[in-house]
Amino acid sequence: MHDPTPDTSLGSFAAVLAGELPGAWTSTYHPDRGGLNVHHVLTDAVWDMNEVAEALANNNVDHCAVLQRHDGTRLFVAEPLGHAEGYLIAALAPDDVPAEAFRGVREPDGIAVDADPFSAAEDITFDLLPRYYVAARQVFRNAEQLTGASSAPERLVMTWSDGALMVDEPDRADVTQVLTDHGFVLDTARSVLVLSGDDTARQAASVRASGERLSELGVDTVLRHPQTRPALGTTPVAPPATSSAPSARRR
After folding, report:
1. Would you say which domain of life the source belongs to (predicted)?
2. What does the DSSP assignment read for 153-220?
């Protein structure tokens, strides 16, 4: 049976709270640094756009605590604005995730809890953490998609044209440099790079060598024939129609 009058100082509160939450949590107390606002690294990571964010925007954080679970989940604990009792608790945003992954994800806003760590643990378990799980899952899913998109190789298309190979002028200077180093010549009028087909053996060697170098830069090379189009002013010849009528017999 727990003490009905627990120590309500922030550090002690956070330490007891860590032992009441589901899973293995640790508590780290960040003390007052002489009135200097040196806890901005933590407050900037608070994942909230409601009550906690408003309190942080209007009040310097002299001291605070951070609870961390073995899976990286973190909770920020601070005193409320003014002379209100209890504490403000909010999730901290996941580390090492690109900012783009948070786009479109609703913040799992924090909560105000009583100074009793036992009732606070229930509020966190059944209110704050479920919202955090939903938001974090979406952020990690977005991050995976961003990573997959960024790791997918670029593709450079070389198109045959009357024996020569043509490439649209790349946006990347390093890709352009590789192509010109291997015999492609820039046609500024058409904004294309052209590899002559006068010497087919040299052309093939240039394509092979440039392809290997581009692969090292994360660029795939694709050879493509131009799309064939029917000549202007011509129409396809329709096959002769077959008649189902019986042929006439000569007597």
Report:
1. Bacteria
2. PEEEEEEEETTEEEEEPPS-HHHHHHHHHTT-EEETTTTEEEE--SSHHHHHHHHHHHHHHHHHTTEE
